[in-house]
UniProtKB/TrEMBL annotation:
Matches recorded under Gene3D superfamilies: Aldolase class I
Lineage start: Bacteria, Bacillati, Bacillota, Erysipelotrichia, Erysipelotrichales
Assigned protein family: Belongs to the ribulose-phosphate 3-epimerase family.
Residues at the catalytic site: 34, 174
Cofactor annotation: Fe(2+); Mn(2+); a divalent metal cation; Co(2+)
InterPro entries on file: Aldolase_TIM, Ribul_P_3_epim, Ribul_P_3_epim-like, RibuloseP-bd_barrel
GO molecular function, one term: D-ribulose-phosphate 3-epimerase activity
Transmembrane feature ranges: none
Protein name per the record: Ribulose-phosphate 3-epimerase
Catalysed reactions, semicolon-separated: D-ribulose 5-phosphate = D-xylulose 5-phosphate
Cited HAMAP family: RPE
Pfam families documented for this protein: Ribul_P_3_epim (PF00834)
């Protein structure tokens, strides 16, 4: 069964704590938090201050997806705010290996994210370092976009590499995930899917979460 990380990007920002508690009670496994800086991606969302405010409202792990330039500068702040997992974009990290070490120094799980155009070869030499690999199945910046099918090839290859090299990183997929695309991700070897609009905009959120998990 897939695990699900609802993305609060699609939640009602005027009542974020209730939205987090809602998906927690309905079977979410993680809370996915999209941090955008208006530079790496053309949108601005939220920072460590809001993460800190949400922390008392759930015991679910916070999966913090940093879509920002210079992520090293903010790792400590997100740790102090209550992040459990931090994923950084390979495209935003000049010294990716160092950034991953920094996240681990702060005793969080570390992950790397690849945009749809970025080849898997870019992370071949950090596979041993990462706890998570996040495959973007849309271009980052906005919720509600359509799943890019080529992402499935990347998931399958990562799953194959994981078996061949006896590694244990979690494979997560983000963007355009709904009941149908979740099954394709699962078949390809994904472990966790992020879902924003498919959960928060659903009439029956519980059913949406159940169906995505499979
Ligand atoms: C996009 C974000 C996603 C987004 C997914 O940049 O990283 O997490 O919230 O939204 P949906 O599930 O609506 O595609
Ligand atoms: Zn995300």
């Amino acid at each position: 069964m897939l695990k699900i990380a609802p993305s609060i990007l699609a939640a009602d920002f005027s009542k974020l704590a209730e939205e987090v508690k809602c998906v927690d009670s309905l079977g979410a496994d993680y809370i996915h938090i999209d941090v955008m800086d208006g530079h790496f991606v053309p949108n601005i969302t939220l920072g460590p201050g809001i993460v800190k405010c949400l922390r008392p409202h759930t015991e679910l792990p916070f999966d913090v997806h940093l879509m920002i330039e210079n992520p090293d500068q903010y790792i400590k702040d997100f740790k102090e705010a209550g992040a459990d997992i931090i994923t950084v974009h390979v495209e935003a990290c000049r010294h990716l290996h160092r950034t991953l070490q920094l996240i681990k120094q702060y005793e969080m799980q570390c992950g790397v994210v690849l945009n749809p155009h970025t080849p898997l070869e870019m992370i071949k030499h950090v596979l041993q370092e990462v706890d998570w690999i996040l495959i973007m199945s849309v271009n980052p910046g906005f919720g509600g976009q359509t799943f890019i099918p080529d992402s499935l090839n990347k998931i399958a290859t990562l799953n194959q590499w994981r078996q061949e090299q006896n590694l244990s990183y979690v494979i997560e997929v983000d963007g355009g995930v709904n009941e149908e695309t979740a099954r394709l991700c699962e078949e390809a070897g994904a472990d966790v899917v992020v879902a924003g609009s498919a959960v928060f905009n659903a009439v029956d959120r519980q059913l949406a979460i159940q169906k995505i998990k499979g």
